[in-house]
Amino acid sequence: MHIKRCRIQTVVTKQKKAYMKKITLLLVLIFAFSSYSQDSKITDEQKIKHVIYQFFESLEKKDAALMQKATMDEAQIWRRYNNKKPIEMDMRFSKDDLPKMQALPDVKEVALQFEISLGDGIATAWVPMNSG
Questions:
Q1: Consecutive sets of 10 residues in the chain, 132 residues long: mean pLDDT of each?
Q2: Beta-bridge partners for 96
Q3: In terms of C-beta density within 10 A (0-12 exposed, 13-18 middle, 19 or more buried), how is residue 62 classed?
Q4: Is the Cβ–Cβ distance between 129 and 112 less than 8 Å?
Q5: Domain spans of the chain, in order of start
Q6: How far is 65 from 61, CA to CA, in rounded Å?
Q7: What pTM, to 2 d.p., does this model score?
């Protein structure tokens, strides 16, 4: 009887080890995914830069649907003309560009830098461009 008892304990111990291996693997996976998701969080500034790139891509492709996705109807688009003396500025609403997107001149502009201000759910971005 003593021999049978040892054998039963061995089987139970093997089952416990297999169970512990599964639990350990599960915990490792949980910690790995949670640490990965913390590293891959996108900042507000990165999201804003993405929208800016979408905006200029919509101008380059003359894509009204992409423009609508990148901006709100009442979004203001300000331009500053540094090559004129005195320096000139103008403003238009993004919704005004939508009907005439196809008639706009060909544009290829590259962002030189970003000045992004965030506050109370509103972002303002000044993006000097280089026409290429």
A1: 52 60 61 54 84 86 88 82 83 85 80 82 80 64
A2: none
A3: middle
A4: yes
A5: 1-41, 44-131
A6: 11
A7: 0.59
Tokens of 4: 């049978």
Backbone φ and ψ of 29, nearest 5°: -65, -40
Residue 59, classified by CB atoms within 10 Å of its CB into exposed (0-12), middle (13-18) or buried (19+), is buried
DSSP-derived secondary structure letter, 102? G
Separation of alpha carbons 64 and 73, rounded Å: 12
Residue 127 sits at the vertex; the CA angle it makes with 123 and 132, to the nearest 5 degrees, is 145
Best CA proximity match to 116, nearest among 62, 61, 50 = 50
| Contact of 125 with 48, CB cutoff 8 Å | yes
